[in-house]
Amino acid sequence: MHARIRRCCSVGHEKVDPARAGTHDLGDKQMRPFKSLISLEKALKILEGALKPIDRTESISIKKSLDRVLSEDIIAERDVPPFDRAAMDGYAVRAEDTYGANNFEPKILRKIDEIYAGEVSDKILQRGECIQISTGCKIPPGSDAVMMVESTEQVGAEVKMFKPVHPKENVSPMGEDIATGSIVLKQGDLLNPSKIGALAALGIQKIHVYEKPRVAIIPTGDEIADLGSELKDGQVYDINSYTLSSIVEENGGIPIKFEIVPDRNEDIRAAIKNASEYDLITLSGGSSVGERDILHDVIEELGTILFHGVQIKPGKPTLCGIVDGKLTFGIPGYPTACLSNGYRFLLPAVRRVARLPLSIGTIIKARISRRVVSSLGRSQFLTVKLEGHVAHPVFKESGAITSMADADGYVDIPADVDLIEAGDEVEVILLM
Question: Tell me, what DSSP letter sits at residue 346?
Answer without folding.
Answer: I
